[in-house]
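Much of what follows relies on a compact textual record of a protein's fold. An example makes this concrete, so a full record is given next.
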Amino acid sequence: MKTMTLNQYGPDASFALANTARPSIKSGHVVVRVKATSVNTIDTMIKDIGSDLPLSPALPAVLGMDFAGVIEEIGEGVTGYAVGDEVYGCAGGLADLQGALAEYMLADARLIAHKPKSLTMREAAALPLVGITAWEGLQRAHVGAGQKVLVQGGAGGVGHIAVQLARHLGAEVSATGTGAGQLAAIKDLGGKPIDFMAETIDDYVAAHTGGAGFDVVYDTVGGANMTNSFAAAGLNAQIVTTVALLELDLSPAHFKGLSLHVVFMLLPMLHDVRREAHGEILAGLAKLVDAGEVKPMLDDQRFTLTEVGAAYARLKSGKAIGKVVVEV
């Protein structure tokens, strides 16, 4: 089968087209004919940092975590699926799990679900990692009706799904972004757009919460931006972040009694712990998508398998609005 393979890591490393043996079926797994895969920030980090990240695959490496495709083979013990079923999931591209930048991949059946019927393969491939991450974060923060939720980075991958899911849960949702494209996207998703370059935290907290602060802040930007999330939060609020790789003074969080939730959705894949939770979330997400409650937002540039290097560059440029997808 054809794959796009990395033979070395680093910012200047290039993907190379290679012929690799098609994966063999094994118990509890399915072999999927990959139709599309999306690019996530963690994918670009693995490519650029490599072995310094404990989750990076050994070289030569086939990356790509998200996929949508068609089941070709079913392993012993797998139920609920048949050959020819259209599925999606986040099931490879790290540690010893071959990724989706390939014509075929082996996927643990616990990490997949039937693809939303209303989506194309390209659209479905954009959902798994960001959808699971958004779902888990809102669940851990106990988001519900009547709450005021702020999504930091509302036009990004995780952010645009978090805006929609929080609205589905009955929350009043605001989201930060900048530039006409991002702000328009947030509004289209049903969020109240906040231009973080033009509005101070005090101003938007006053405008959207009457000065009380948000009940939940989902910070998809993370890092140093977490101090802004602390400032925007109300007393005893919930803070969710997907990027906590930093040293940080937690004094502002202490004096507001904030609860901090760090979401690292790759843990079930890395440690084979409760992988079925991801399949359950994907199944629930598919129902919401087909009911019209959630829709993935895709960047307008399209890429084929051999153009994966350009797709990674597109995501890293910061110019993409929505998910960058590679069609296989």
